[in-house]
Protein backbone atom coordinates (compact mmCIF):
# COMPACT_ATOMS: atom_id res chain seq x y z
CA UNK A 1 0.00 0.00 0.00
CA UNK A 2 1.12 3.55 0.01
CA UNK A 3 0.97 6.92 1.55
CA UNK A 4 -1.59 9.40 2.76
CA UNK A 5 -1.97 13.11 2.56
CA UNK A 6 -4.91 15.39 1.86
CA UNK A 7 -8.47 14.40 2.62
CA UNK A 8 -8.16 11.56 0.17
CA UNK A 9 -4.86 9.99 0.96
CA UNK A 10 -2.26 8.98 -1.49
CA UNK A 11 -2.36 5.29 -2.25
CA UNK A 12 -2.82 2.84 -1.07
CA UNK A 13 -6.52 4.65 2.31
CA UNK A 14 -7.29 4.12 1.71
CA UNK A 15 -8.36 4.32 1.56
CA UNK A 16 -11.09 5.03 5.28
CA UNK A 17 -12.55 7.76 6.36
CA UNK A 18 -13.10 9.52 9.56
CA UNK A 19 -9.85 9.94 11.17
CA UNK A 20 -6.23 10.76 11.62
CA UNK A 21 -4.02 13.59 10.81
CA UNK A 22 -3.87 15.49 7.60
CA UNK A 23 -0.21 15.81 6.92
CA UNK A 24 0.52 12.30 8.13
CA UNK A 25 2.30 11.02 5.06
CA UNK A 26 1.50 7.37 4.98
CA UNK A 27 -1.37 5.05 5.66
CA UNK A 28 -4.11 5.74 3.19
CA UNK A 29 -7.18 4.97 5.22
CA UNK A 30 -6.64 7.81 7.67
CA UNK A 31 -7.31 10.84 5.54
CA UNK A 32 -7.76 13.84 7.81
CA UNK A 33 -7.14 14.87 11.34
CA UNK A 34 -8.02 18.27 12.51
CA UNK A 35 -9.40 20.17 15.42
CA UNK A 36 -12.73 18.58 14.46
CA UNK A 37 -11.58 15.17 15.69
CA UNK A 38 -13.01 14.72 19.23
CA UNK A 39 -10.07 15.30 21.62
CA UNK A 40 -11.06 12.41 23.89
CA UNK A 41 -10.74 10.01 20.97
CA UNK A 42 -7.46 11.24 19.52
CA UNK A 43 -5.24 8.83 21.50
CA UNK A 44 -7.40 5.88 20.44
CA UNK A 45 -7.40 6.94 16.79
CA UNK A 46 -3.64 7.47 16.93
CA UNK A 47 -3.14 3.97 18.34
CA UNK A 48 -5.18 2.44 15.51
CA UNK A 49 -3.31 4.54 12.98
CA UNK A 50 0.13 3.43 14.19
CA UNK A 51 -0.99 -0.18 14.25
CA UNK A 52 -2.11 0.09 10.61
CA UNK A 53 0.84 2.15 9.44
CA UNK A 54 3.39 -0.25 10.92
CA UNK A 55 1.69 -3.20 9.25
CA UNK A 56 1.59 -1.24 5.98
CA UNK A 57 5.36 -0.76 6.20
CA UNK A 58 5.87 -4.47 6.76
CA UNK A 59 3.85 -5.22 3.62
CA UNK A 60 5.22 -2.52 1.37
CA UNK A 61 8.42 -0.76 2.40
CA UNK A 62 12.00 -1.71 1.61
CA UNK A 63 13.22 -4.61 -0.49
CA UNK A 64 12.26 -7.62 1.62
CA UNK A 65 11.07 -10.75 -0.17
CA UNK A 66 7.40 -11.68 -0.20
CA UNK A 67 8.13 -14.61 2.12
CA UNK A 68 9.82 -12.32 4.64
CA UNK A 69 6.95 -9.83 4.50
CA UNK A 70 4.38 -12.54 5.12
CA UNK A 71 6.42 -13.96 8.00
CA UNK A 72 6.67 -10.49 9.56
CA UNK A 73 2.94 -9.94 9.20
CA UNK A 74 2.27 -13.33 10.80
CA UNK A 75 4.45 -12.32 13.75
CA UNK A 76 2.63 -9.00 13.93
CA UNK A 77 -0.71 -10.83 13.94
CA UNK A 78 0.54 -12.99 16.82
CA UNK A 79 1.43 -9.85 18.75
CA UNK A 80 -2.07 -8.50 18.11
CA UNK A 81 -3.55 -11.68 19.56
CA UNK A 82 -1.31 -11.39 22.61
CA UNK A 83 -2.21 -7.73 23.04
CA UNK A 84 -5.93 -8.47 22.76
CA UNK A 85 -5.57 -11.24 25.34
CA UNK A 86 -3.93 -8.92 27.83
CA UNK A 87 -0.51 -10.46 27.33
CA UNK A 88 2.71 -8.58 26.49
CA UNK A 89 3.61 -8.32 22.83
CA UNK A 90 7.11 -8.99 21.56
CA UNK A 91 9.77 -6.32 21.91
CA UNK A 92 9.84 -5.74 18.16
CA UNK A 93 6.72 -3.56 18.03
CA UNK A 94 6.40 -2.82 21.72
CA UNK A 95 5.56 0.86 21.22
CA UNK A 96 2.71 0.06 18.83
CA UNK A 97 1.04 -2.46 21.08
CA UNK A 98 1.68 -0.46 24.25
CA UNK A 99 -0.53 2.23 22.71
CA UNK A 100 -3.09 -0.19 21.36
CA UNK A 101 -3.64 -2.47 24.35
CA UNK A 102 -5.27 0.12 26.66
CA UNK A 103 -7.45 1.32 23.77
CA UNK A 104 -8.72 -2.21 23.13
CA UNK A 105 -9.55 -2.51 26.83
CA UNK A 106 -11.05 0.96 27.33
CA UNK A 107 -13.28 0.96 24.27
CA UNK A 108 -13.90 -2.76 23.78
CA UNK A 109 -12.36 -2.36 20.34
CA UNK A 110 -13.38 -5.16 17.92
CA UNK A 111 -10.05 -6.94 17.44
CA UNK A 112 -11.39 -8.85 14.44
CA UNK A 113 -11.46 -5.56 12.51
CA UNK A 114 -7.79 -4.95 13.28
CA UNK A 115 -7.05 -8.49 12.11
CA UNK A 116 -8.98 -7.80 8.90
CA UNK A 117 -6.55 -4.97 8.11
CA UNK A 118 -3.68 -7.44 8.40
CA UNK A 119 -5.43 -9.71 5.91
CA UNK A 120 -5.46 -6.83 3.43
CA UNK A 121 -1.75 -6.20 3.90
CA UNK A 122 -1.04 -9.89 3.41
CA UNK A 123 -3.08 -9.83 0.22
CA UNK A 124 -1.16 -6.81 -1.03
CA UNK A 125 2.07 -8.79 -0.80
CA UNK A 126 0.89 -11.48 -3.21
CA UNK A 127 -1.92 -10.04 -5.36
CA UNK A 128 -1.43 -7.39 -8.05
CA UNK A 129 -4.45 -7.85 -10.34
CA UNK A 130 -8.21 -7.80 -9.71
CA UNK A 131 -10.63 -9.56 -12.01
CA UNK A 132 -13.80 -7.59 -11.31
CA UNK A 133 -15.48 -4.82 -9.36
CA UNK A 134 -16.70 -7.45 -6.91
CA UNK A 135 -13.12 -8.61 -6.29
CA UNK A 136 -11.98 -5.02 -5.71
CA UNK A 137 -14.83 -4.44 -3.28
CA UNK A 138 -13.79 -7.57 -1.43
CA UNK A 139 -10.30 -6.09 -1.11
CA UNK A 140 -11.83 -2.86 0.23
CA UNK A 141 -13.79 -4.97 2.73
CA UNK A 142 -10.43 -5.88 4.31
CA UNK A 143 -8.30 -2.82 3.55
CA UNK A 144 -10.64 0.14 4.05
CA UNK A 145 -13.97 -0.74 5.61
CA UNK A 146 -12.53 -1.94 8.95
CA UNK A 147 -11.15 1.52 9.66
CA UNK A 148 -14.55 3.12 9.23
CA UNK A 149 -16.17 0.51 11.43
CA UNK A 150 -13.50 0.94 14.11
CA UNK A 151 -14.10 4.68 14.14
CA UNK A 152 -17.87 4.26 14.26
CA UNK A 153 -17.33 1.98 17.24
CA UNK A 154 -15.41 4.77 18.98
CA UNK A 155 -18.23 7.21 18.16
CA UNK A 156 -20.84 4.82 19.59
CA UNK A 157 -22.58 4.24 16.24
CA UNK A 158 -23.47 0.57 15.71
CA UNK A 159 -26.66 0.29 13.62
CA UNK A 160 -26.64 -1.73 10.41
CA UNK A 161 -27.56 1.16 8.10
CA UNK A 162 -24.69 3.29 9.38
CA UNK A 163 -22.23 0.42 9.05
CA UNK A 164 -23.30 -0.15 5.45
CA UNK A 165 -22.99 3.57 4.67
CA UNK A 166 -19.55 3.65 6.29
CA UNK A 167 -18.47 0.74 4.09
CA UNK A 168 -19.63 2.68 1.03
CA UNK A 169 -17.63 5.77 2.05
CA UNK A 170 -14.51 3.77 2.89
CA UNK A 171 -14.63 1.68 -0.27
CA UNK A 172 -15.22 4.79 -2.37
CA UNK A 173 -12.21 6.51 -0.81
CA UNK A 174 -10.05 3.46 -1.51
CA UNK A 175 -11.24 3.29 -5.12
CA UNK A 176 -10.76 7.02 -5.71
CA UNK A 177 -7.25 6.58 -4.36
CA UNK A 178 -6.67 3.84 -6.90
CA UNK A 179 -7.82 6.00 -9.81
CA UNK A 180 -5.79 8.95 -8.49
CA UNK A 181 -2.59 6.92 -8.21
CA UNK A 182 -2.55 4.87 -11.41
CA UNK A 183 0.64 6.60 -12.59
CA UNK A 184 2.37 5.38 -9.40
CA UNK A 185 0.84 1.96 -8.84
CA UNK A 186 1.15 0.54 -12.34
CA UNK A 187 4.92 1.14 -12.62
CA UNK A 188 5.16 -0.68 -9.29
CA UNK A 189 3.42 -3.68 -10.84
CA UNK A 190 -0.09 -3.20 -9.40
CA UNK A 191 -3.14 -2.71 -11.59
CA UNK A 192 -6.27 -2.04 -9.58
CA UNK A 193 -8.55 -1.34 -12.55
CA UNK A 194 -10.89 -4.37 -12.69
CA UNK A 195 -9.86 -6.65 -15.54
CA UNK A 196 -13.39 -7.44 -16.69
CA UNK A 197 -13.84 -3.75 -17.56
CA UNK A 198 -10.73 -3.68 -19.74
CA UNK A 199 -12.39 -5.56 -22.59
CA UNK A 200 -15.53 -3.45 -22.32
CA UNK A 201 -13.39 -0.42 -23.18
CA UNK A 202 -11.05 -2.19 -25.64
CA UNK A 203 -8.09 -1.89 -23.30
CA UNK A 204 -5.45 -4.56 -22.77
CA UNK A 205 -2.77 -4.99 -20.13
CA UNK A 206 0.02 -3.79 -22.43
CA UNK A 207 -1.69 -0.41 -22.84
CA UNK A 208 -1.98 -0.04 -19.09
CA UNK A 209 1.61 -1.13 -18.40
CA UNK A 210 2.75 1.42 -21.00
CA UNK A 211 0.60 4.09 -19.29
CA UNK A 212 -0.99 4.94 -22.62
CA UNK A 213 -3.45 7.83 -22.48
CA UNK A 214 -5.97 7.38 -25.26
CA UNK A 215 -9.78 7.38 -25.63
CA UNK A 216 -10.00 3.73 -24.58
CA UNK A 217 -7.98 4.05 -21.37
CA UNK A 218 -9.58 7.36 -20.38
CA UNK A 219 -13.02 5.83 -20.97
CA UNK A 220 -12.06 2.92 -18.72
CA UNK A 221 -10.93 5.27 -15.96
CA UNK A 222 -14.00 7.48 -16.35
CA UNK A 223 -16.32 4.53 -15.87
CA UNK A 224 -14.52 3.45 -12.71
CA UNK A 225 -14.48 6.99 -11.31
CA UNK A 226 -18.25 7.16 -11.84
CA UNK A 227 -18.62 3.88 -9.94
CA UNK A 228 -16.65 5.26 -6.99
CA UNK A 229 -18.67 8.49 -6.99
CA UNK A 230 -21.89 6.49 -6.85
CA UNK A 231 -20.61 4.51 -3.87
CA UNK A 232 -19.58 7.71 -2.09
CA UNK A 233 -23.00 9.26 -2.56
CA UNK A 234 -24.65 6.10 -1.24
CA UNK A 235 -22.65 6.43 1.96
CA UNK A 236 -22.86 10.21 2.32
CA UNK A 237 -26.02 10.27 4.52
CA UNK A 238 -23.81 8.83 7.28
CA UNK A 239 -22.60 12.37 7.97
CA UNK A 240 -25.96 13.11 9.61
CA UNK A 241 -25.66 10.11 11.93
CA UNK A 242 -22.12 10.53 13.25
CA UNK A 243 -22.37 12.88 16.22
CA UNK A 244 -20.83 16.29 16.83
CA UNK A 245 -17.41 17.29 15.59
CA UNK A 246 -16.77 13.84 14.14
CA UNK A 247 -19.76 14.32 11.84
CA UNK A 248 -18.24 17.52 10.50
CA UNK A 249 -14.92 15.76 10.03
CA UNK A 250 -16.71 13.10 8.01
CA UNK A 251 -18.39 15.74 5.86
CA UNK A 252 -14.94 17.00 4.87
CA UNK A 253 -13.74 13.47 4.15
CA UNK A 254 -16.70 12.77 1.86
CA UNK A 255 -16.23 16.08 0.08
CA UNK A 256 -12.50 15.43 -0.21
CA UNK A 257 -13.13 12.15 -1.99
CA UNK A 258 -15.67 13.70 -4.34
CA UNK A 259 -13.34 16.62 -5.03
CA UNK A 260 -10.48 14.30 -6.01
CA UNK A 261 -12.89 12.53 -8.38
CA UNK A 262 -13.72 15.93 -9.91
CA UNK A 263 -10.04 16.72 -10.29
CA UNK A 264 -9.55 13.42 -12.12
CA UNK A 265 -12.36 14.42 -14.46
CA UNK A 266 -10.78 17.86 -14.98
CA UNK A 267 -7.60 16.09 -16.10
CA UNK A 268 -9.63 14.31 -18.75
CA UNK A 269 -9.25 11.08 -16.76
CA UNK A 270 -5.58 11.01 -17.77
CA UNK A 271 -4.30 9.71 -14.43
CA UNK A 272 -2.08 7.21 -16.21
CA UNK A 273 0.05 10.26 -16.92
CA UNK A 274 -0.62 12.71 -14.10
CA UNK A 275 -1.70 12.54 -10.46
CA UNK A 276 -4.26 15.15 -9.38
CA UNK A 277 -3.63 17.05 -6.15
CA UNK A 278 -5.78 19.18 -3.93
CA UNK A 279 -4.96 22.86 -3.48
CA UNK A 280 -5.90 25.50 -0.92
CA UNK A 281 -8.77 26.51 -3.20
CA UNK A 282 -10.03 22.94 -3.24
CA UNK A 283 -10.05 22.97 0.58
CA UNK A 284 -12.27 26.06 0.45
CA UNK A 285 -14.63 24.36 -1.99
CA UNK A 286 -14.77 21.24 0.19
CA UNK A 287 -15.52 23.27 3.32
CA UNK A 288 -18.33 25.15 1.57
CA UNK A 289 -19.87 21.95 0.27
CA UNK A 290 -19.49 20.27 3.65
CA UNK A 291 -21.41 23.14 5.22
CA UNK A 292 -24.32 22.57 2.86
CA UNK A 293 -24.52 18.78 3.19
UniProtKB/TrEMBL annotation:
Its EC number is 2.5.1.21. It comes from the Bacteria. Signal peptide: none annotated. CDD domains: Trans_IPPS_HH (cd00683). Pfam families: SQS_PSY. The keyword Nucleotide-binding does not apply. GO terms for molecular function: squalene synthase [NAD(P)H] activity. Keywords: Transferase. This is Squalene synthase HpnC. It comes from Polaromonas aquatica. The lineage of its organism: Bacteria, Pseudomonadati, Pseudomonadota, Betaproteobacteria, Burkholderiales.
